[in-house]
Amino acid sequence: TGTFGGVIASVSFSIITDLFALNVRGRVMGFVQMAFATSQVLGLPIGLVLANQYDWHAPFWMIAAIGIIVGLIIALFMKPITEHLNVETKLNPIKHLYSIISNSWYLQTFLAATLLATGGFMLMPFGSAFSIHNLGLTMEQLPVLYGVTGVFTIVFGPIIGKLSDSLGKYQIFVFGTVLTSVIVAIYTHFGITPLWMVITISVVMFVGVSTRMISSSALITAVPDLKDRGAFMSVYSSVRQIAGGIASAIAGIIVIQQNDGPLQRYDILGYVVIATMLISMVLLYFINKNINKRESVNIAKGSNITGNMAVEPA
Fold first, then answer.
1. Which domains does the chain have, with CATH numbers?
2. Alpha carbons within 13 A on the beta-carbon side of 74
3. Model confidence pLDDT, tens digit, residues 109-135
4. CB 115 within 8 A of CB 279
5. Which residues is 264 bridged to in the sheet?
6. Which of 81, 83, 47, 41 is nearest to 65 (CA)?
């Protein structure tokens, strides 16, 4: 999954950057990020049903089957994108990679990626356990919680993307960060809570998380130069995955549980998540400032920040 899944993620973001101009990229990211919400609506409930009906291998066979179908559709119907190959680069792959990881602006973006991935990977692994042992939900109520949350996230994804294009990607990111921080502070202090209230808080929290994901992803795609885009996105995707693993490990150290009792120190974990979100907001401020400065220079020179391939959708 790391060898192939990581490559697919980085290539997908590179394709989006190649095909769509920066001023519409938020809208595109809004639709792309709908896949995450769809996995909640369909993937989690179906996975639970398959695991209960058969065994724990069944959901993974389902993922493999879907991957094969999607791969065939891509191979048969998607046109190759080769325009970026016309951009001459004299560096060999090793030197090119070194130039990516030694670029101070790129390093700042990778640091931001680390913190952007931290919040979700810290909270999500304990989501089901916290819902059952602390909030008082049953196993039968979990698919309802995830399903309703996913539906609202699907609906709001394109709206968030469009707002990030019209109001500003960083401005929408700040809004999502503030909203998510407030909800995380409330959510991590909950005790036994009615299902409707848990669903309400979960919906608002995941809308906030989606707001951060969509706006930051659209913004960060404007960072690399055309010649660096593929390599940059590969490193960016890898950094996020590594950061997610480290974040999960740290969360496992913070949160403790006595036998089958409620999770303890989940509120402390919430404070850590909020701190990482606020720091990422500061880092994104400087990234956004550099992007705007470079865009102004490119406009003055009569060129496009995203390269010659980027176009606006009809």
1. 2-84+92-301 (1.20.1250.20)
2. 12
3. 999 988 888 877 888 888 889 999 999
4. yes
5. 256
6. 47
